[in-house]
Amino acid sequence: MTTATTATTATKPAAPKATDDEIDTAILTALADAGAAQRPVRWTTIERRIPGTVWQQEMALVRLWNDWRIYAVKVGRQLLLELSGPLDAMIAAKQLGTSPRVLPVVQ
């Protein structure tokens, strides 16, 4: 007589879900580290450093773009990102009819 055994496979525990603030901060930090204040940076350059799922990352990019914190341009198949500056925020605030949240410092 044979005894049937069942094999169990170990499953990888689910990663803790990243919050929107954590993802936003990670994107802005990665862009700053990559020099996105002076030139556009490819999304693929920083993508692996960003926590969260692909969908969370995509929503964070949309959120940051809507808040005028980044510029996003797609050239061919490459998504290029650049940090916006304080003057950009002032222009956006004027166009939206709100007061600017930042002030430029002239040296």
Automatic annotation (TrEMBL):
<protein>
    <submittedName>
        <fullName>Uncharacterized protein</fullName>
    </submittedName>
</protein>
